[in-house]
Amino acid sequence: MPKIPDEVVKRVIDLARIEDVVGDFVTLRKAGVNLTGLCPFHDDKHDGNFIVRPSTVSEKRGGNTYRCFVCDAKGGPVQFLMEHERLSFPDAIRWLGKKYNEPVDDVPVNYTPPPPRPAPPPLPDLAIPKSWVKRTMEIGGDQTLFIYWLKHLPWDDEQRARLQQTLWMYCVGGWKDGRVVFWQIDHNGIPRAAKLMRYLPDGHRDKTQHPGWIYNQDGCRQALDPDNHEIIKPLFGSHLLSSYPKAVVNIVESEKTAIIMANYYGDPDTQLWLACGGLKHLQLDSLQPLIDQGRTIWLWPDKDGREAWQKVCDKLGYDKCRVYTHFFDTCWTVADGMKADVADIAIRMMTTGEGPRKEQRLKDSKDFPAQAQSSKSIELDTDEPFLDEEELRDPRVREWRMKMSYVHSSGWGKCPTSNVPDVKSVGEILNEHPLLSKLIDYGDTTE
User: Fold this and answer.
1) Phi, psi of 198, rounded to the nearest 5 degrees
2) I want to staple 305 with a disulfide (CB 3.0 to 4.6 A). Which of 105, 214, 301, 360 is the partner?
3) d(CA 445, CA 348)
4) How confident is the model at residue 371 (pLDDT cuts 50, 70, 90)?
């Protein structure tokens, strides 16, 4: 049999799109820039193990390939056909040539793909008995290095007095081997997962060990049977949403940061601190309950995560969600490092005396998105207004305030007019904006 010319092979491979080829055999769904489905190379039950990076993604980022993170099957369109259809390389090229109407040679090949494998019925959601939560919390205390370290931070008296309550509210427990347990309980109060992490005496995570999940621990796996259940991972702290329906939701990366900031600021009636578990774990599925409730969401990424979370925020398209950077802009120092999070800065401020004091926190409150309204009665040496109820409901209002302050540098109640006929000044344009009445209380503007 004559050899297929190299230029023909190259032309066919250039035409082949992995999403088309795999899509002939596997039901795929959109997952960000990727596609995902059930792996056809093993008895897969969880949609999400098998990832297809479509041809629209660049080659440097792995475009036009597939991979299963369970059985490690991977490759491009030709490899998929050779593995899945047991075709030789020439027959895979002929198969692709027929699919894309590119002549290869006269050797016949059967291009009639079978119907895509139907998706199995949905698995029941994994629910963990509530008694397990209580049991791990009873193991906590000083037996867990993380909690021991947390108790020895330089809190002020008020913060130290509420620390145990904060740990109890967030259901932070301990494991028998000294790991800390961060429970992930959904907004309906059902325990769904628990992350087990080991910390060093200095409060840093032990990176020699990967975080574990409770459903993979000996004994727990047999009782919970995660392979035959759908695993849900809500935001850490989601169970508090129903108890504090009016609180603004601040989302950080790590559970450790959420605990520290919740205890640092206190007052869950006005602000809650939730964690997604890492820079890349901020997902629409976990944010959807907040959106359904119409909550105001402030995203607090680590110093090096602003750009990534801003992209997520833009893609989300939810008007009441914003990336909050003012804390970093005003408090971060070079000594904190480019990977610092807000908890690192808060600890440094407490250690140096810059901040656990109540009066210092109140001075910062003009820049904090969820400060209690009682703070408005405190006189500060600044002309910038406190955040009010409108700002809490709509983060855009704060942005407009800042823009207005730049335009009206001479005073909040003065709008300069244009001297050019039929041309309005920026101040006049902003003055006609329907949000203006929410932004500025002009009061008495007489000289």
Assistant:
1) -105, 130
2) 301
3) 43
4) very low
How far, in whole angstroms, is CA 208 from its chain's centroid? 24
pLDDT of residue 428: 65
Q: Are 251 and 297 in contact (CB under 8 A)?
A: yes
H or E stretch at 431: helix 426-431
pLDDT of residue 334: 84
**Distance (Å, whole) CA 20 – CA 138:** 53
d(CA 415, CA 407): 9
State the CB neighbour count (10 A cutoff) for residue 336: 16
Mark 203-239 as b/e (b = at least 16 C-beta within 10 Å): beeeeeeeebbbbebeeeeeebebeebebebbbbbbb
Which has more confidence, 356 or 257?
A: 257
- Distance from C-alpha of 36 to C-alpha of 370, rounded to nearest angstrom: 38
- Amino acid occupying residue 385: P
* CA distance to 379, 398, 408, per residue, from 384 (Å): 11, 11, 13
Asked if residue 253 has pLDDT above 90, the reply is: yes
For residues 163 and 278, give the distance between their C-alpha atoms in angstroms, rounded to a whole number.
24
Instruction: Quote the CA–CA distance of 357 and 365 in Å, as a whole number.
Output: 12
Q: What's the CA angle centered on 413, arms 412 and 417, to 5 degrees? A: 105
Residues 211, 182: Cα–Cα separation, whole Å: 11
What is the rounded (10 degree) CA torsion for 105, 4, 54, 43?
Answer: 90
Enumerate domains of the chain plus CATH numbers. 6-99 (3.90.580.10), 130-367 (no CATH), 395-439 (no CATH)
- Please tell me the pTM assigned to this model: 0.61
Reference 198, options 215, 177, 170, 217; nearest CA is 177
Q: In what order do the strands lie in the sheet with 50-53?
A: 29-31, 34-37, 50-53, 65-68, 74-75
Query: Which tokens sit at 106?
Result: 């006269």
What is the gyration radius of the CA atoms in the chain, in angstroms? 28
The tens digit of pLDDT for each residue in 191-248 reads 999 999 999 988 888 888 888 999 989 889 899 988 888 888 999 999 999 999 989 9
Task: Say which range, 142-156, 230-244, 293-307, 392-406, has the weakest mean pLDDT.
Answer: 392-406
